[in-house]
Amino acid sequence: MLKKCFSNKKFVVGFIILVPLIIVMIFGNFLVPNDPYALDTVNMLKNSSAKYPLGTDEYGRCILTRLILGIRPSMMVALGGTAISFAGGTLLGVAAGYLEGRIGAVIMRGIDIILCFPPILLAMIIAGLWGAGVINLMLVIGLLYIPHFSRVAYSSTLQVRKMEYVESDLSIGAAPSAIMWKAIFPNIISVLIVQVSTTISNAILLESGLSFLGLGVQPPTPSWGQMIGSARGYLNVNVMYLFWPAVCLCLTILAVNLMGDAIRDILDPKLNNSF
Fold it and tell me: What are the TM regions of this chain, as residue ranges (predicted)?
């Protein structure tokens, strides 16, 4: 499996971009050149210099330092929210697909209702009611993407449910819970892994959008979306203030999407010869 991953060019490109970002996220406190909260009123909105390699923001704070630390809340929210949605969505989807009947119909109709609303609109409503913060954002994103995992798990379960090994377990009187998690779940995990990569990139983008609107990570804690939101008012003074967090955000989402596409290609034999 590992050999197939590193023979896929998309996976390698995504890996090369993503691994340094993860290292920065973990060891960011040891890599920052300046205090992320220190104000320097003499050097506000300055271009790059020896002391501030990427310049300063409207309060004279080091942009490079805040970029390094800004990845942490975005990735924490994305990974935590994806874990919640994976667990909740898989549980509901597998249960609805296996049980079918009235219970399955009720679960899936509730999922369909949530899917009718744009994610950013629901996120704004829930974040507005619960308040901002990393933990609340994890819960918001986790709840928003449960329907996506549920639909994938549901459709995959319907396909697997009629397979011979499932019928065999039924014939020997295995409990429904044992069939769902020992016979069905291991055989749909590959599809769910692809959904995980898609959800992580969407969650990063959603968290950045909420922070941009002031409903995400709150100042003075740095966040890429928050930095983009602050920088839009200073484009005429220092365009690089907007450029750097936007580039970091784009590269992160690109890397996650590339790795997700590569994993899909590897897990699907029909796509093994793709780029």
Answer: 12-32, 75-99, 111-131, 241-260
Contact 78, 203 (CB under 8 A): yes
Q: For the whole model, what pTM was predicted?
A: 0.85
Asked whether 91 and 75 are in contact (CB, 8 A), the reply is no
Q: What is the pLDDT of residues 100-128, one digit of tens each?
A: 778 888 988 888 888 887 877 878 887 77
Q: Which amino acid is at 153?
A: A
Q: Are 12 and 266 in contact (CB under 8 A)?
A: no
Strand-pairing partners, residue 62, are 56
Q: Residue 20: CB partners within 8 Å, gap ≥ 6?
A: none
Instruction: Encode pLDDT of 205-253 as tens digits.
Output: 888 888 888 887 888 888 898 899 889 888 888 888 999 999 999 999 9
First CA to last CA across the chain, in angstroms? 17
Domain 70-268 superfamily per CATH? MetI-like (1.10.3720.10)
All structural domains of the chain with their residue ranges: 70-268
The Cα–Cα gap between 201 and 250 comes to: 10
Predicted local confidence at residue 61, as pLDDT: 93
Helix (H, G, I), strand (E, B) or coil at 218: coil
Query: Are 118 and 57 contacting, i.e. CB atoms less than 8 angstroms apart?
Result: no
- Angle, helices 240-267/63-99, rounded to nearest 10 degrees: 30
Closest by CA position to 253, among listed 205, 218, 187:
205
**If we measure between CA atoms, which residue out of 156, 151, 199 comes closest to residue 180?**
156
Structure confidence at residue 274 (pLDDT): 47
CA atoms of 109 and 22, how far apart (whole Å): 38
